[in-house]
Write a structure and sequence with these properties.
The complex is a heterodimer of chains A (about 450) and B (about 425). The model of chain A has no long low-confidence stretch (mean pLDDT about 95). Chain A has 2 domains: about 210 residues, Cytochrome Bc1 Complex, Chain A, domain 1; about 200 residues, Metalloenzyme, LuxS/M16 peptidase-like (Cytochrome Bc1 Complex, Chain A, domain 1, 2-Layer Sandwich), CATH 3.30.830.10. Chain A is about 40% helix and about 20% strand. By secondary structure, chain A is of the alpha+beta class. In chain A, a hairpin with a 5-residue loop joins β1 and β2. Chain A has 17 helices and 12 strands. In chain A, the strands form 2 sheets. Chain A has a 6-stranded mixed β-sheet, with helices on both faces. Chain A has a 6-stranded mixed β-sheet with strand order 9-10-8-11-7-12, sandwiched between helices. The relative contact order of chain B is 0.17. In chain B, β1 and β2 form a beta hairpin. Chain B folds into 2 domains: about 200 residues, Cytochrome Bc1 Complex, Chain A, domain 1 (2-Layer Sandwich), CATH 3.30.830.10; about 180 residues, Cytochrome Bc1 Complex, Chain A, domain 1. In chain B, strands 1-2-6-3-5-4 form a 6-stranded mixed β-sheet, with helices on both faces. Chain B has a 5-stranded mixed β-sheet with strand order 7-11-8-10-9, with helices on both faces. The chains are: A alpha+beta (about 450), B alpha+beta (about 425). Chains A and B meet through α2, β5, α4, α10 and β10 of A and α2, β4, β5, α4 and α10 of B.
Chain lengths: ~450, ~425
Amino acid sequence: MSATDLQLPPLQIEKLPSGLTLLAVQKRGLPLFHVRLSLPAGACEDPRGKTGLAQFVVDLLRRGTRRRPAQDVDDLIESMGAHLYADVSMEEAALALTVPAELSERALDALLEVALEPAFEDAEVSAARRRTIAGLQSDLDEPNSVAGRAVVTLGYGSAHPYAHPAQGFRRDVETFRREDALGFHATRYQQQGALLAVVGQRSPAELLDLMKARLGQWEGSWPGRSQRVALQFAGLPPGEGMRAIVIHKPDATQAQVRIVSPGLPRSTPRYAESVVTNTILGGGFTSLLVDAIRVDRGLSYSVSTRLHMNRRAGLSIFSSFTKNETLRELVDVALEKMRAYAQSGPSEDALEKARRYLAGLFPLGLESHEALAEQIADALLDGLGLEHIQTYRSRVSAVTAPQARTMAAELSPAREGALMIVVGEAEAARRALGGLCPVDVRQLEEFA
Amino acid sequence: MPLSEKDFPVEEHSLENGLQIRLLRDTSLPVCTVYSFFRVGSRNERPGITGISHLFEHMMFNGSRKYGPKEFDRRLEAAGGSSNAYTSQDITAYYEDFASEALPLVLDLEADRMASLTIDDASLAREREVVKEERRFRTDNDIDGMLAEALGALTYLAHPYRWPVIGWMTDIEAITRQDCEGYFRTYYAPNNCTLVLVGDFEPAAALREIDRLYGPIGAGGKLPGVATGEPPQKGERRAVIRYPSQAPALIAAFRTAAGRDPDLLVLDLIEAALSSGEGARLKRALVYEQELCVDAHVYFGWRMDDAPFEISLKLNPGVDPARAENALWAELSRVSSEQMPARELERAKNLIRSQLLRALSTSNGRAHTIGQMEVLLGSWRAMLDLPDRYASITAADVLRVAQKTFAPHRRNLVTLVPGEVDA
């Protein structure tokens, strides 16, 4: 392991016998206090036929607790000048608040009340269901959002725990009842595997004491210990040839394009190589693809490749968009550049540029209270430890040309079996992709 | 509680050529941010070249005398930095976030393009296509974008705020190299720029370097005037857009006041009370209680001239737009006729205070706030007493400003109706 190259602010970590991890980080400067609770209740935990339940539950938490109705919950939080962040990733549900430092006790209590004592009243559950369904339909107006939903749904292959958007599908959301929310909350909002983080001006020891004192008041509110069935994460299926799915958006004058292949989990020991290799291909503003597609040809405003890295699996994704008339040109250039990169890897110059770019900018991702809590919490929950952050800069700086060459071939979004997703006007897209690969046209509503 | 100058020891300098410099040292992380604020945006344009400010922002990355095409970002990234820029109605701002040892390079890159930007036909042709794609993405194929564009043209009759920052498609196609060269000479002179540095650097050394690099650049001439005239609005204005969407939508605007008018702070509070947080009035009434909308949002930002107070409602599929419109007017009528309860006013003030503090929690945020205050309010010091100025606003102020702003004859409304336009 490389030596520490980034000094984190003073912090303490303590794991309680209940399985809850406490993280206290001291950040001097602005008089702010941030609290974040991560729970093992992410979208991958959605039961079969209940996609979107994790998100639905986290959305419902603020719609009334056992102590007060929804309006009073809003008042409780927003009178402190705070916005409640409540969202799910594939792995976790996370709730967070940032308040003026003098309100730290109140913020901790408010967050724990919302997380641990939701009422899930029938009327609120029904209203939330109607809102979610309306939101899902409304999202179909955003080609970018439809493309994102299609990428996870199709990219991971059927039956994989990651193979659905966190917001779920309309057909599943329509079945949600109070019992679903209660059951999910009781079994997933557990101390085992959860992490409570605070970032504030006081010393880490004082912050830990503060957390323990407030947690003591909420001890009886946690759901009882529950045994969960382990999720099955099958390997991603190898594909043959390339195929395209076109999602028909009437009247679109521009097509959204994604090209997707299996990627790597966040826990990969080759994390640094994968990040460096991806940056050269489509990560920074001077990447090979930005150069070829935007700068040299003016084909698109936005071009990127990114690694969708979850705890146990990931995807490698090319994203761009262009007017219908240049769809084929954009796809041809993208495929050619990605295949060439997969064969030859990066030049020494490009590798050196990416290493310095990533190492130089990394501290900026730890600047705010929110980013600090999230980055450290995620590193701990993913089992990567503080070293993941503390040695990041030396690890990316140490990536070699042979490592990058190997990774370029393994991680190319355009390798054998890649899936292309196009959201746009179907006839124009079908014509553009003619002769390239089999094209299957789907309707927008299938992705609601 | 005001923010203290002790916590924000900003140094103020200027060069003989008029370049304004603001420096704020902060050694907590080994990083810096540099912002270059140019006082130019779509308000400085005229019909026929709308969108040139934004197109020009793109052109600024295409090479200068010392650093040729593609070199700006390549050098910057290789030194551990990244850059971006934005164009608004009033401002074009460029920034770099980077590892602090790259400061000399960043200043050299910025000064070189201010001194000697290359504008050639080939790069203009390519960048024009990129901007047209951006317009297709943000406006032509995006409901919020297409409604906002129609709303601008409805709210302003004479002022340049009537056209979109990205410009009309036909104007983007028509802008010439000569237009760009003229624009550069006029608006990218040092006397039209404020340079802000925040982060881990030595101020005296940075200032010497700035003087060495920017000092030789000649000052520009007097800036052309802006056609800011706008007749008083004498009645409600409405427009309809038909587009194959899943659901209807509404967007409304009320013309307010210019950047230094103290009523803008009151409008910030009204914005927070109406739409910041789930307990805000519009969200509570229209999203949760009446279930008319997926989302209800207010957009209000200070501008150099009369800013619009915009309200956007994304309706639930199947909801009659007239019903949602009436519900919106009812909420605005309530804020204009009933004194806001003390608790609600306090909530709005607390939300704004937190927003202000959060904006100052990163180098980039601090640099941006300092520059924005300079350009819009005349001095970065304006940020120091903002918390006190918000705190002193009363319920009577809110009522007075709401009555003035939301009068029915000042309404501008665009409705999106799902469907096709007959060919």
